[in-house]
Amino acid sequence: MRDAGGQPEPLLAGRDLVKIFRGRPSKRYSLFRTKIRAVNDVTISIDAGKTVGIAGESGCGKTTLARLMVGALPPDDGQIYFRGRDVAKLRGEERKTYRAAVQAVFQDPRSAINPRLSVAASIAEPLVRQKDQTKADLGAAVDELLTAVGLEEGVRDNFPHQLSGGMLQRVAIAQALASDPKIIVLDEPVSALDVSIRAQIMNLLQDLRRDYGVSFFMISHDLATLRYLSDEVGVMYLGKLVEFGPAELVFDQPQHPYTAALLSAAPEIRRDSAAKGSQRIVLPGDMPSPEEPTQGGSFHSRCPLWQKLGRPSVCTDEDPALHSTGGRHRVACHFWDATPTTLLPTTTPSSDGHDVTEAAGPRLDPATGQDHAREDNWADGPW
Ligand SMILES: Nc1ncnc2c1ncn2[C@@H]1O[C@H](COP(=O)(O)OP(=O)(O)OP(=O)(O)O)[C@@H](O)[C@H]1O
Ligand code: SF4
Ligand SMILES: [Mg+2]
Questions:
Q1: Predicted local distance difference test score (pLDDT) of residue 167
Q2: Is 280 part of a structural domain of the chain?
Q3: Which domain, by its residues, includes 350?
Q4: Average pLDDT for the chain
Q5: Computed over its alpha carbons, how large is the radius of gyration of the chain?
Q6: Whose CA is closest to atom 3 on ligand 2?
């Protein structure tokens, strides 16, 4: 399907998405509750065969956005489109097709897998729902999926409590694949796993993308995970996308001060030579509560660029819209063109002396969970 401009429609897209939760009872009127704007006017799209990653500190709305995109939560405003069709308007067979095509894998596989079903029965469930199959066909399909996710046939009769976290995450991925999905929404799929298992699962995801052509929409607070798997990356702050674009541009030439600050805590994942020896940008304070929305811009109180520019009033008066800097790279900053040079000083040599321009190994080492070219691949962000 193509859009009005003749471009192929994205596989999955969210337009102007808003999700508001009820918060605590209001201080003034106990019958009322505060409103939490968990996702605030987000527009995003994932093309067929691509991986889009979302970064941001805890509470910025990543999981809520993932749940909206997979249809697990209805938006309070905005629409979700699957291949150009508004999913709220899909009925009957079309809705069934969309449901099968968009699958989810979450951080804790134990909560997603029925503890009373064996591995084989869990994986077979979506297959049975799709069409009548003979027992032999079903068994063969389950074995094929077990192989695809790197599990031995010996585990088919095991129950979830008999499996490790890494094996269970593989079962959850096999279960998602059983629906023959076009896209899998992954919310922190490796963050609950040991470092060495993380690398195996990330390599598995790379392989599945290649072998099945499946797209991923991936949430992670870990920038190294996103760098490894994503074609495009979005950065969220307080329910909004503040930067979105091709991964190499967002990671190596961040245009938003918040992205620059996140990346300054993990210079080793950057592949451009300017990252060598770059200084850490420490933002003052914490992300404000989404229960207490500020008037105008939401980031200025923590923004180092705002300070450097002499506190321009436009930042306090107007929340900047996402602005295209060329191609698909978009940034929500009134002064986006000032960010990279102003905020990424390169005065202090890197303490570990890595040559980050060579830091992009194509596979992670399962024994260590590290990108081959560097030693400390799992540095946490500043959150
Ligand atoms: N069901 C809910 N009811 C009320 N508030 C919610 C609910 N789910 C999320 N929130 C709030 O919405 C905001 C965004 O939460 P969300 O879980 O989407 O963030 P996140 O970026 O995934 O955080 P984390 O990195 O900690 O997983 C938070 O303030 C959270 O407390
Ligand atoms: S718009 Fe102003 S406050 Fe917001 S990121 Fe840009 S410089 Fe900082
Ligand atoms: Mg979350």
A1: 94
A2: yes
A3: 252-375
A4: 84
A5: 22
A6: 300
